[in-house]
């Protein structure tokens, strides 16, 4: 179940790669359940580790690639991931979003996202923010020089706020509304139960033979 999204304050994780596909985010061998949890430890597995991983492999046996962004000290506990264009391309697996969320990521910032991946983000309570390429470049530069700086993503104001920077972003009003109130497709439908019940009652009266 999603939780209400208002603002997130965090350091930035800088993943300086374009066309990050969903198989890179969560390799296929880890898609072993529909529980939505437990996938974070396998996120970006082929980039985080030099050895071949598999579900349940002990962390002590892994060979970390220390240069990868998730291994940087400033990335520990960070909740905002900065990427390049066409983030989330490839197959439509929702598991990729589950892995990022389980990793602790609440906000993605990139110049563009694959459509299905972006839709899956909103459905799972994650905020994908699309900014102009030059704004993304400036954020990468900021992280390079000051990796420990904290940034705030304020969904109410639609602003990314950092040291000496206030960057406005846009998000569709309905999707913003859903994130702020932690609404998913089921809860949105439940809000219209009176209308649904009134419609069903009207059908019973007009076409009783359908319900006999």
UniProtKB/TrEMBL annotation:
GO terms for molecular function: 3-isopropylmalate dehydratase activity. Pfam families: Aconitase_C. Its EC number is 4.2.1.33. InterPro entries: 3-IsopropMal_deHydase_ssu, Aconitase/3IPM_dehydase_swvl, AconitaseA/IPMdHydase_ssu_swvl, IPMI_Swivel, LeuD. It catalyses: (2R,3S)-3-isopropylmalate = (2S)-2-isopropylmalate. Pathway: Amino-acid biosynthesis; L-leucine biosynthesis; L-leucine from 3-methyl-2-oxobutanoate: step 2/4. The keyword Metal-binding does not apply. Residues 7-133 form the Aconitase A/isopropylmalate dehydratase small subunit swivel domain. Keywords: Amino-acid biosynthesis, Branched-chain amino acid biosynthesis, Leucine biosynthesis, Lyase. Heterodimer of LeuC and LeuD. Catalyzes the isomerization between 2-isopropylmalate and 3-isopropylmalate, via the formation of 2-isopropylmaleate. Belongs to the LeuD family. LeuD type 1 subfamily. This is 3-isopropylmalate dehydratase small subunit. The lineage of its organism: Bacteria, Pseudomonadati, Pseudomonadota, Betaproteobacteria, Burkholderiales.
């Amino acid at each position: 179940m999603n939780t209400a999204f208002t603002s997130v304050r965090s350091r930035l994780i800088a993943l300086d790669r374009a066309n990050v596909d969903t198989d890179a985010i969560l390799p296929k061998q880890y898609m072993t359940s529909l529980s939505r949890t437990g996938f974070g430890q396998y996120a970006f597995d082929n980039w985080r580790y030099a050895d071949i991983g598999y579900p349940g492999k002990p962390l002590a046996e892994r060979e970390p690639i220390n240069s990868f962004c998730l291994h940087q000290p400033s990335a520990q506990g960070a909740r905002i991931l900065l990427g390049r264009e066409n983030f989330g391309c490839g197959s439509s697996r929702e598991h990729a979003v589950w892995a990022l969320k389980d990793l602790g990521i609440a906000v993605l910032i990139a110049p563009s996202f694959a459509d299905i991946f972006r839709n899956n983000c909103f459905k799972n309570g994650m905020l994908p923010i699309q900014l102009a390429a030059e704004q993304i470049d400036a954020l990468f530069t900021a992280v390079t020089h000051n990796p420990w700086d904290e940034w705030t993503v304020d969904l109410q104001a639609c602003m990314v706020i950092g040291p000496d920077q206030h960057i406005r972003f846009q998000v569709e009003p309905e999707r913003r509304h859903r994130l702020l109130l932690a609404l998913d497709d089921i809860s949105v439908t439940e809000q219209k139960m009176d209308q649904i019940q009134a419609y069903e009652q009207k059908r019973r009266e007009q076409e009783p033979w359908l319900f006999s």
